[in-house]
Write a structure and sequence with these properties.
Structural class: mainly alpha
CATH class of the largest domain: Mainly Alpha
CATH architecture of the largest domain: Orthogonal Bundle
Distance between the termini: 68 Å
Order of helices and strands: HHHHHHHHHHHHHHHH
Shape: flat
CATH topology of the largest domain: Hypothetical protein af1432
Helix content: 55-70%
Radius of gyration: 21 Å
Number of domains: 2
């Protein structure tokens, strides 16, 4: 019995009956030899962690666009916080922590530069629309490894695709990530907004803080404990009605005071117009994209989709640079 087989056996001894067991995975689209050390979900986790799209998350906006300071969240740090919260819940409930981590690390791989402003920009100009969760699937199935994709398991891809509120993950591990995503962004967006002087802790709605707590640490502790207590022994991931209502209240408050705040989000209009101008530019001049994207069109991929692939994969800084190259006049050189 090799190391992987021992780990799979340990899962059956320790994990609860509702867990997604590694040796019962539905597998990959393309069969490949099993690793003798890592379980199938560990391999997925590692593939995501070592992907180029994962590394690019470090220079993609979470909420605050190009903030002046090193401590504001990026799309990468958001992803890591989702992963940590999700793993804590999964371990406490004796669910598959490796599957949970893989889904969490991969859930935003397809996110655009400039946060949801970038997502809205592409959704408006692409006739097929654009959703970052669907793009994340396209990244792992089509775009990574020069068109080969990462060949992830069915369960990991399902969790990535269904992490949005409207999704319906088929595994409890996917449901954990779906909830952990909201837990993370509600709390860290409040923290960043306070750091940026957009609001004060005292501004938060009292009916919410009375339930959840008066600090990021207390709120995270309260919510995570509640989810564990209310999900233990159940074939579902749930929280109590009071906690759910308080979280919904904070989310609504953030939309009113932060996500639409003209001070915090004043530059988003520029970012949105910039990405839409880039979209039009590459639609009319696809040969200006890198060779790998031109090759995709030659292989039959629709131009709109490939242009979205290229723009969505950009970091904030790279998008600005490509816009400058396309639209700003350069000094003459002999």
């Amino acid at each position: 019995m090799n190391v992987r087989e021992k780990l799979e056996a340990l899962e059956h001894e320790y994990l609860c009956g509702y867990a997604a067991f590694s040796d019962q995975s539905k597998g990959r689209d393309s069969d490949e030899p099993m690793c003798d050390v890592r379980t199938i979900y560990q391999r997925d986790r590692d593939r995501i962690l070592h992907s180029k799209s994962f590394r690019r998350l470090k220079q993609k906006t979470q909420v605050f666009l190009s903030p002046e300071g090193d401590h504001y969240r990026t799309r990468l740090t958001h992803t890591l916080e989702v992963s940590q919260t999700a793993r804590t819940i999964a371990r406490a409930l004796r669910l598959n922590e490796e599957l949970t981590e893989a889904i969490a690390l991969g859930h935003d791989l397809g996110h655009t530069p400039f946060g949801h402003a970038g997502e809205r920009a592409l959704n408006e100009v692409c006739s097929r629309g654009f959703k970052h969760n669907e793009q994340s699937i396209r990244v792992v199935e089509r775009l990574e490894k020069k068109g080969k994709g990462l060949n992830l398991t069915v369960e990991v891809r399902d969790g990535i695709l269904n992490h949005k509120t409207t999704g319906n993950p088929t595994t409890l591990e996917g449901k954990i990530v779906q909830l952990a995503d909201k837990i993370a962004y509600i709390n860290h967006d409040i923290d960043d907004a306070i750091r940026g002087g957009i609001l004060l802790e005292e501004d938060l709605p009292k009916h919410c803080t009375a339930v959840l707590g008066n600090s990021t640490r207390n709120r995270l502790n309260t919510i995570i404990h509640d989810v564990i207590a209310n999900s233990e022994g159940k074939n579902d991931i749930v929280c109590s009605a009071d906690i759910r209502q308080a979280m919904t209240g904070l989310r609504s408050f953030l939309f009113d005071t932060v996500y639409t705040n003209p001070v915090a989000k004043g530059e988003e209009g520029k970012a949105k117009r910039m990405l839409q101008e880039l979209f039009s530019y590459y639609i009319s001049r696809p040969e200006m994209m890198p060779e790998e994207y031109v090759a995709m069109m030659e292989q039959g991929e629709e131009r709109e989709i490939v242009v979205c692939d290229y723009i969505a994969g950009m970091t904030d800084n790279y998008a600005v640079m490509k816009f400058q190259e396309a639209f700003e006049p350069l000094g003459w050189k002999r």
